[in-house]
Amino acid sequence: MSASIVTVGTFDGVHRGHQALLTEIVRQSRHLGVPSVVYTFDPPPKTLFADMVQLTPVDEKIRRISHFGIDHIIIARFDATYAARPRQAFLTELGRLNPEQVWVGADFRFGRARGGDVATLARHFDTRLIGKVDCASGQRISSTRLRELFALGRREEARRLHGWPARGCLPGTID
Questions:
Q1: Do the Cβ atoms of 39 and 154 come closer than 8 Å?
Q2: Residues ≥6 apart with Cβ < 8 Å to 159
Q3: CATH number for the domain whose boundaries are 4-132
Q4: In terms of Cα–Cα distance, which of 165, 145, 92, 161 is closest to 174?
Q5: What's the pTM?
Q6: pLDDT tens per residue, range 57-114
């Protein structure tokens, strides 16, 4: 790929916060005339390091991301081998996409023992930080928040933040 705009993240649930980002990535890529790329992970890294329920299976995540007109989706198989890679391996892999911009969250970490951060990324690429998206009540929209709401049985509130029908989300807990 000769150039691109890349966003890197878990995108678990592809909730309204993710949707705002995907819309912006596509807008930027069209403006610059380069393809948009989502680099994501399956399973989400937190499932390897913490007892976390995955919101959306990978096939549903791909369908939802594609809905926004993203040109390319890269899915890295996240396992112990991937987690043990040095940060330079991730930077090299990302560099092959020739990104004009790389969009990540402020708390983004990569590489073995989370050794790379936004500052590391910014030394190699034009790095843009993703702004937080809040709901009407002022709470941040996040995959963690959605899991909390589902666990508390507050399904309607979770669905509003989620922005999708419940299909493919937290199997066994959604009507």
A1: no
A2: 166
A3: 3.40.50.620
A4: 165
A5: 0.86
A6: 999 999 999 999 999 999 999 999 999 999 999 999 999 999 999 999 888 889 888 8
